[in-house]
Amino acid sequence: MAHESFEDEEIAGILNDKFIAIKVDREERPDVDSVYMRICQLMTGQGGWPLNVFITPDQKPFYAGTYFPKTSKFNRPGFIDVLEHLSETFANDRQHVEDIAENAAAHLEVKVHPAEGMLGEQAVHDTYRQLAGGFDTVYGGFGQAPKFPMPHMLMFLLRYYSYTGKEQALAGVTKTLDSMANGGIFDHIGFGFARYSTDNEWLVPHFEKMLYDNALLLTAYTEAYQVTGNERYRQVAMQIVTFIQREMIHEDGSFFSALDADTEGREGKYYIWSKKEIMDLLGDELGSLYCKVYNITDQGNFEGENIPNLIFTRREAILEETGLTGHELTERLEGARKKLLEARENRSYPHTDDKVLTSWNALMIAGLAKAAKVFHEPDFLSMAETAIRFLERHLMPDGRVMVRYREGEVKNKGFIDDYAFLIWAYLDLYEADFDASYLQKAKTLCTSMLDLFWDEGHGGFFFTGNDAETLLVREKEVYDGAVPSGNSAAAVQLLRLGRLTGDGSLIEKAEAMFSVFKREIEAYPSSNAFFMQSVLAYTMPQKEIVVFGSKDDPDRKRFIEALQEHFTPAYTILTVEHPSELAGISDFAAGYQMIDGKTTVYICENFTCRRPTTDIDEAMNTLQISSRA
């Protein structure tokens, strides 16, 4: 509608003459978007974007819809007709309009009250069963096209497998990750994932690249590597970071929000190729090899051109046919990729949404910290630390988190997801290098989150803070969308922080959430897969591992690196050089002692600890871990 209607002089004249038009960026103001999207769903039975809502002077909505063509077609009213009709009705039948608005506002008030009991192990298994029931066994992913990556669902399945040993859960994850990495949704020349696939096969994407998708997929591929040891997952994770470093990072170390799908008015133009273009660039021998591997044809697979992909590629058959070794094939394809990337960079580049969003940056910081930890990549940790320092400097003035930064301008008070995702980032930073200051920052931020967003009457977190602009309703969201909801992320981080610090009040807050959202989550458990990570962690046995010792001690280094390499969601790891460093941060562990100045390991369950040991091999055997090195 931006081009069809809002840049049209006739429509602009009507809008300016009879309405006050306000355009809202839903990424900067998700609170406004959420309230009015719910209105649209109540009024029309459906939602989506573009979202058009007409409100009275006191901000109460009386008409809503999504896409309107300029003139009536596709069985849709034309935008001109809608504007004229609403203007006339408002002028001639104001009371009717006011009645509609009052009724809509009344229906928007939805109270969430705690249910009897709370979510438990049965809900965990129900979540798995519902996810498994919607799984595409042929191509991976969930449901039918359009197919979104939904990495937080994969994260739940990895944890479910870790706790239960259910092989089908792991198979669902690996099938999905393999299919996406082979498909056109992954950019095989410049790396990074597009937003979603328009087909079941993951071949043709909507070419927009979002920071949050790549952040969450970085975490998912890293965790899948921890579970399986599959080098392909390490490779994809590293390629995501390469893409972020090259195309999604400001000079100051913060991260862009998105790259547009289209250039010069055509979606995907930057990313697609004719076979002739590839052959001309690479020459006959290398070009033929590249086209064979990446399924490039004269006919093309997208509007007469080609999206490189590996969907039908059988590497063993290509090795046999060409007589190349695996190393030779990899080297030649990498050389071809670099040539194609160099040529592509001369094309008109997609528009970059360069605003810095706190929540999405926090997700990328968390992903980078986890990848740094697992792959022992200090440069990834440096990227994450540079970004968190930027957020602290520009988007957390006086401790109050803000939503976005662009060209020196900071706007809008942060929402629950900004806080919950930042705590997530701090905890992953702590687990990457065990700098206790990150743990302290997570604690401080959690206190602010509870003060600003916690519902003292019924439990759970409101989307907006108690110092925010007053809207029609103060919403409390739990369902996950393309990213986990603020309440989902908060529940997970409350448990993590509670176990790291020994603060039982944080665990009690999570328990309250298991009650307040019980009805909603039991009705649609798979739509709350990230929230269910917290329930899974709560109901399954957990261990606290406390390690004291010098960072220079080879025994400590060997033990910590082995823990970091493995997928251990049941383990909470605290480590500092001396117990006194935990005073005021994790008091339950601050009273423990080192033995004879040696690296000392305490293995605890629900804060009840075994006899400490300085025998690192004994500790590793107890935890059933070993070094992959």
UniProtKB/TrEMBL annotation:
Residues 1-108 form the Spermatogenesis-associated protein 20-like TRX domain. Pfam families: Thioredox_DsbH (PF03190). One of its GO terms (biological process) is carbohydrate metabolic process. InterPro entries: 6-hairpin_glycosidase_sf, 6hp_glycosidase-like_sf, Ssp411, Ssp411-like_TRX, Thioredoxin-like_sf. PANTHER family: SPERMATOGENESIS-ASSOCIATED PROTEIN 20 (PTHR42899). This is Spermatogenesis-associated protein 20-like TRX domain-containing protein. It comes from Bacillus siamensis.
